[in-house]
């Protein structure tokens, strides 16, 4: 793994090409399997993922540590609370 903290993660999901609500459902299921403090990198193309992941983290007590919103690929890191 890269030493840069923005690139450190324990798990990775590629949800590119999937549309709402699929990316959120996949992320939710993956986070359930993770231990507290682990980080999940998510790659996505659906523009609604930023809103969905931010709300998911807020309601479930997780941290959205990275949100790079590029016109083509969005990149997120969620730390499980």
Q: Could you write a compact summary of the structure shown?
A:
This protein is an alpha+beta fold and 81 residues long. The chain has helices at residues 22-33, 49-60; strands at 11-14, 39-44, 63-69, 74-79.
Plain-language structure description:
The protein is an alpha+beta fold. 30% of the residues lie in helices and 28% in strands. The protein is built from 2 helices and 4 strands, in the order βαβαββ. The two termini are 22 Å apart. The relative contact order is 0.24.
Topology overview:
Elements: E1 11-14, H1 22-33, E2 39-44, H2 49-60, E3 63-69, E4 74-79
Parallel strand pairs: 1-2
Antiparallel strand pairs: 2-4, 3-4
Classify the helix fraction into a percent range: 25-40%
Distance between the termini: 22 Å
Q: Structural class per helix/strand content?
A: alpha+beta
Unreliable stretches covering 5 or more consecutive residues: none
Overall mean pLDDT score? 93
Strand content: 25-35%
* Sheet with the most strands, sense and barrel status: 4 strands, mixed
**Strand arrangement, largest sheet?**
1-2-4-3
Radius of gyration, in Å, reads 11 Å
Can you count the beta strands?
A: 4
What would you call the shape? globular
Strand-and-helix sequence, N→C? EHEHEE
The number of helical elements comes to 2
List keywords for this structure.
single chain, 2 helices, alpha+beta, four-stranded mixed β-sheet
